[in-house]
Amino acid sequence: MGFNCGIVGLPNVGKSTLFNALTETANADAANYPFCTIEPNTGRVSVPDNRLYALAKLANSANVIPTQLEFVDIAGLVRGAAQGEGLGNQFLANIREVDAIAHVLRCFEDGEITHVEGSVDPIRDTATIETELMLADIESLERRMSGLMKKSRGGDAEAKSNLTLMEKLFAQLSDGVPARRATELSEVEALRVPHLQLLTSKPVLYVCNVGESEAASGNAFCRDVAVQAAGEGAAHVIVSAAIEAEISQLDNQDKVEFLAELGLKETGLARLIRAGYKLLDLVTFFTVGLKEARAWTVAKGATAPMAAGVIHTDFQRGFIRAETIAYDDYIANEGEVGAKDAGKLRIEGSDYKVADGDVFHFRFNV
Asked: Following DSSP, what letter does each residue of 312-366 receive, concatenated?
């Protein structure tokens, strides 16, 4: 099961620099001119989780394998993208393929780095991209509603239902409300919105890219973004792409010392990765043994057989039961044996919904 987060923003806001630091590679060119990124770059990153290492220590696991999240560096968008300006059509198509959006905002002044709008204003930049995404969604809905109207008049109940939902979304998009914040939808309609693959239905994380001296505290630009994010029910993180690029080249000891000098306890990327993970509404479960301790990812609400299927399709197909220990119980009782002795091991069936931190041993038969 793959989960990915697209890194978007105007040209020259630091997307590719951030992506390079995230993946600790130089796969994405970083340069001071628009459309440096043409084809989207993709990289997988480990999700920081201290629980995994605590479990591995208790189980004396030989290997530790974190769960991962995929980031996609997408070409910079400019005003008019919905009408094909710049690399607009390609940009919009790439966004349609991701599960969530990390919107990088330039929150630093630097006369040597060009800004396509001529000045630094992250709130204006969010509006620019949001407007282009809404215009693209409006165009998409117009095309689809035209076909549904004919079917609806012919008595097609499903077409009529879809048309009603699209008309509600179309009206709100026309009023400047993105699909993810649409109101007046029934519970069933709200569940169907993601299946329409609208660009503005995807959850958004605002990433404030600041200068090196402001990595710990942020600045006035960041505070403006924080207010906007809170009003939308969205999240935001503060990162200095320049610092993260430097840190990505250091060994672990040097990283710790460098972060301490800057007044930071952890990298901005660690916060960004965790925020992206949370944005996608994911949970982590673990498998632990002498050979390896491993973290796995499922969407919130996934059942035990679905979790088993992430490890191997045979596990899901032949699922019998899941022997389950909560993370806190595993730690408090110093491992699997202690948890069993304390009566903390549970037997869960196919209806069980995975809780974050579950330690599983799956029983199956194929």
From this structure: -HHHHHTEEEEEEE-HHHHHHTTSHHHHHHTT--EEE-TTPBPPTT-EEEEEE--
**Structure tokens that stand for 207 in this block:** 């990433």
Please compute Rg for the chain using Cα positions.
23
Give residue-wise pLDDT tens across range 227-251: 999 999 889 999 999 898 888 888 8
Say how far apart CA 88 and CA 254 lie, in whole Å: 41
pTM of the model: 0.82
Instruction: Count CB-CB contacts under 10 A for residue 39.
Output: 11
Among 53, 55, 48, residue whose Cα is nearest residue 332? 55
Q: How would you classify residue 46: left for phi > 0, otherwise alpha for psi between -120 and 50, otherwise beta?
A: beta
Say if CB 47 and CB 273 are below 8 A apart: yes
What is the chain's length? 366
Residues 17 and 26: their CA atoms lie apart, in Å, by: 9
- Distance separating alpha carbons of residues 357 and 332, to the nearest angstrom: 14
Sheet harboring 204-209: ordered strands across? Answer: 41-46, 68-73, 4-8, 100-106, 204-209, 235-239
Pairing of strands 68-73, 4-8: parallel
What residue has token string 């505070």? Answer: 223
Low pLDDT (below 70) residues in the chain = 1-2, 25-40, 75-91, 114
**Residue 140 in 3-state DSSP?**
helix
Cα-based distances in Å from 53 to 5, 59, 62, 275, 293: 25, 10, 11, 20, 8
